[in-house]
Amino acid sequence: MAKKKGYLSCLDSVKPVRDAIDVINGKWKLPIIISVTTGNERFTDIQESIPGITPKVLAKELKDLEQHKLIKRVVIDDYPVKILYRPEPYATTLTPIIEALKDWGLTHRKKIFEKE
Amino acid sequence: MAKKKGYLSCLDSVKPVRDAIDVINGKWKLPIIISVTTGNERFTDIQESIPGITPKVLAKELKDLEQHKLIKRVVIDDYPVKILYRPEPYATTLTPIIEALKDWGLTHRKKIFEKE
DNA sequence: TATTTCACTTTCCTTTAGGAAAGTACTATA
DNA sequence: TATAGTACTTTCCTAAAGGAAAGTGAAATA
């Protein structure tokens, strides 16, 4: 019983970890975050900055990222209207995690390919 | 050109980040890692410790985790042979990342559900 | 001899992520 | 009037993840 409880309380950390991973998971989330944070604002600019992405996927991922408050869709009411995508300051809270994942991923690749 | 180079060098971090995420991604990787590190060793014990997992998925994920050197498949040559799954010390290098993801995931959930 | 346990594998099916190509509604420009 | 740009949407398709259920082969137990 004590063992089972211990296991279940460990499982409690699975959900938030999954929540976090889901935000940056998928083929295009990180490239889009990077593109927007490096200054690309227009839909077509973002699209052209990421080779291979289709407008369908970009539209869907931008909505996702907006729901997660990482970017903001800004409508500029000129004639014609402009639509800009801008990074939210909140997006920077992801940076240390992405760095940690990057570092681990780099050493892991070495670990896997080192002589057995 | 400087801008494009900047973008491309940012993209260089996408691959290692993906490498890292792939290791812990999917529905069952974390529960299995947790189950093994908390002491479950036998296939059926691990299976029973994770509600809902099927033997097919467990077998596949255990192979994956072994390839990534996070766990070890140990064959004990008694009669009958026993097969044990044990965590590798290397698996602990994941802990700070999982903790960071958990913390970010928890605050993120609050952020998303706070009044707009 | 029959049943059970262990560690899986096999087959079939559904769901989800993502790609390719075309279309759309509006505006601007030649 | 015709073409081009902007920001998408729609439809159709494929591949991969994962689930359900049954099967397998060897050894242990009743």
Automatic annotation (TrEMBL), chains A, B:
Residues 15-113 form the HTH hxlR-type domain. The keyword Repressor does not apply. This is Helix-turn-helix transcriptional regulator. It comes from Pontibacter qinzhouensis. The keyword Transcription regulation applies. GO terms for molecular function: DNA binding. Keywords: DNA-binding, Transcription, Transcription regulation. Gene3D superfamilies: Winged helix-like DNA-binding domain superfamily/Winged helix DNA-binding domain. SUPFAM superfamilies: Winged helix' DNA-binding domain. Pfam families: HxlR (PF01638).
